[in-house]
Amino acid sequence: MLVQPYLFFDGRCEEALAFYEKAIGAKSRLMRFSESPEGHGPPTIDPANAQKIMHAHVEVGETAFMASDGECKGEAHFGGFSLSLTVADAAEAKRSFHALAEGGEIVMPLSKTFFSSGFGMLKDRFGVHWMVMSPP
């Protein structure tokens, strides 16, 4: 059994995937709405959204999440959860934290804690909540 997050960026998925590639080295495989076989995609696709992302598989290190543009309404909402990124050391935590925070909002600055050599929380420019941490 496997549980994986599936994030709906509501029209900004390709932009988000490019950002995560740069910020944390994510690798993506994607399928656009226009690539779905006849009769197997959404019942109605607005031609303006044909090149939007229907499905993406995103690998970050040893884990993965999935993503999509969903209904392409431009109103993505991410609440009630955080993606937790655990990295090798405090230096990588600092780099990853500041890369993900670019254009977003720092909720808790990265700092040493009793359980981590570097822990911080942020909301990225797409509204996704992240916790970044390194081992003690």
TrEMBL record:
Q: Which Gene3D superfamilies match?
A: 2,3-Dihydroxybiphenyl 1,2-Dioxygenase, domain 1
Give the InterPro entries listed for this entry. Answer: Glyas_Bleomycin-R_OHBP_Dase, PhnB-like
Report domain PhnB-like positions.
4-132
Q: Name one Pfam family in it.
A: 3-dmu-9_3-mt
Q: What is this protein called?
A: VOC family protein
